[in-house]
Design brief:
- With 227 residues, this protein is of the alpha+beta class.
- It is 18% helix and 34% strand.
- The chain has 3 domains: 103 residues, no CATH class; 71 residues, Double Stranded RNA Binding Domain; 35 residues, no CATH class.
- The chain is built from 3 helices and 11 strands, in the order ββαβββαββββββα.
- The strands form 4 sheets. The chain has a 3-stranded antiparallel sheet, with no helix packed on it. Strands 3-4-5 form a 3-stranded antiparallel sheet.
- β9 and β10 form a beta hairpin.
- The radius of gyration is 23 Å and the shape is flat.
- The termini are far apart.
Length: 227
């Protein structure tokens, strides 16, 4: 059987679980990570082929179950994994069917790493929340997006960056297995081709610094040292 790959950052959605107002008046929210059914179908297609999997739904004791079957080429048989769905608040039947499918896909390992998510708390400013019917709610204009994700060898989340729809970083987690440092000059995350620091590069000068920098800030710093 093929190995299920881990989710990419753009395949992970962020949902506000609850908005909490402290006695001090400060307001924040708890965020949850989740995936949608389209991601499940995409990964099933990638891993097993369009003709290599199938799904069906059954009602058992008034509960809707979904069975996701994958064809094992080695044994030439279908292998089933099943789970039950929960009704949604908007589209009852469609939501329940989708939830059952997503849960069955977790049984296959798709998105199981999301259960290793850290506790995610985000402070909200005055423009991002409002009072309605005696409850504190988040503005519908505020959205949160996972822009970076890293995993350790145990397939657990070890680094994550969440930004708002304005591009500002609202939550970040780093450790030795996860996302690298942020630039000590401009604050941007150092990843990919920009993952360079002065102590890792030869600049022909003894004036070194241990401050991590993105490539653009490093080049400016390098020019200043040489000048």
């Amino acid at each position: 059987m093929e190995n299920i790959r881990l989710l990419n950052a753009d395949e992970i959605d962020v949902r506000v679980q609850s908005v909490i107002k402290a006695k001090s008046g400060s307001v924040g929210c708890i965020l949850l990570l989740y995936k949608d059914a389209r991601v499940d179908m995409k990964i099933l297609d990638e891993t097993f082929g369009v003709m290599g999997w199938k799904r069906k739904h059954d009602v058992v004791n008034d509960n809707l179950f979904c069975t996701v079957s994958v064809y094992n080429k080695d044994t030439q048989e279908w292998v089933d994994k099943q789970d039950v769905g929960v009704e949604s608040y908007t589209e009852k039947q469609k939501g329940e069917a989708s939830d059952a499918f997503k849960r069955a896909c977790v049984n296959w390992g798709i998105g199981r790493e999301l259960y290793t998510s850290p506790f995610i708390w985000v402070d909200l400013n005055e423009k991002e929340h409002y009072e309605s019917e005696g409850k504190t709610k988040i503005s519908p204009k505020v959205k949160f997006i996972v822009t970076e994700i890293n995993y350790n060898k145990a397939r657990e989340i070890s680094g994550i960056v969440i930004r708002d729809n304005g591009g500002e970083i609202r939550y970040k987690l780093y450790n030795k297995d996860g996302i690298e440092k942020e630039c000590g000059v401009c604050g941007e995350i150092i990843t990919g081709a920009d993952k360079k620091t002065p102590e890792q590069m030869s600049i022909g000068t003894k004036k070194m610094t241990k401050t991590a920098m993105c490539y653009d800030c490093f080049k400016k710093w390098q020019a200043e040292q040489k000048g």
